[in-house]
Amino acid sequence: MKFTLSWLKEHLETDASVDEIAEVLTDLGLEVEEIEDRAARLKDFTIGKVLKAEKHPDADKLKVCKVDGGNGDILDIVCGAPNVAAGMLVPLAVVGAVLPGDVAVRKTKIRGVESSGMLCSQRELGLGDDHSGLWALPPGIAAGTAMSQLLELPDQVLELDLTPNRGDCLGMEGVAREVGALTRTDLTLPVFASVAAAIDDQLPVNVQ
């Protein structure tokens, strides 16, 4: 079973960290198989704004771009994506960033032109299969904004390896009740309004 820390805290009044919650779950016999920090996976990626995209002097399919990386940083980046154009907002990996697959972005020269970063597609971020061009982001986002903030991923995902006898923890309410009992914290279970019947039909039920 997978759930986010924020989802658990919707049912439980606690300020405990994800590591503390994982330790409690383990003490309860609910083994935490994995903790995934989705925000950390995107920590090296921000939003860049393409200010200029001009033809590379020595390559027909490449463009030399001026990119606003935020905080006044203007970067020279060589890009081969067919859709790169001035005015675009795109994911930006600066020098030192690590792409999925442990590929580090380095300052390099491409056909004699220095490139100080990389503009990314969805696949290069590990967030999709599209590699036909750069991931064009919606307008109105400030250059330098973290990708994790844009995608609202400041959360951790816990995965439990449940045994067959713990069917009571196949739902969020059951997990929250167990953690609350051990940590002596109050549950804040969701309240659902009753739905009024719209018809008068009744069916007989015989429980044997």
Structure, described:
It is built from 6 helices and 12 strands. It has 208 residues and is α+β, with helices and mostly antiparallel strands. Helix 1 packs across helix 6. The radius of gyration is 25 Å and the shape is elongated.
Give a short summary of the structure.
The chain is of the alpha+beta class. It has helices at 5-11, 18-27, 38-41, 122-125, 147-150, 172-183, and strands at 2-4, 31-37, 45-55, 63-68, 74-79, 89-93, 98-99, 103-104, 108-110, 113-115, 118-119, 156-161.
What does the secondary structure layout of this molecule look like, with pairings?
Blueprint: E1 2-4, H1 5-11, H2 18-27, E2 31-37, H3 38-41, E3 45-55, E4 63-68, E5 74-79, E6 89-93, E7 98-99, E8 103-104, E9 108-110, E10 113-115, E11 118-119, H4 122-125, H5 147-150, E12 156-161, H6 172-183
Antiparallel strand pairs: 1-12, 2-12, 3-4, 3-6, 4-5, 6-11, 7-8, 9-10
Helix pairs in contact: 1-6
Helix amount: 10-25%
Distance between the termini: 34 Å
Identify low-pLDDT runs.
none
Strand proportion, as a percent range, falls in 25-35%
Using DSSP, what is the number of strands? 12
Which structural category do the helix and sheet elements fall into? alpha+beta
| Gyration radius from CA atoms, angstroms | 25 Å
Instruction: Tell me about the largest β-sheet.
Output: 5 strands, antiparallel
What characteristic shape results from the CA principal axes? elongated
Mean pLDDT: 89
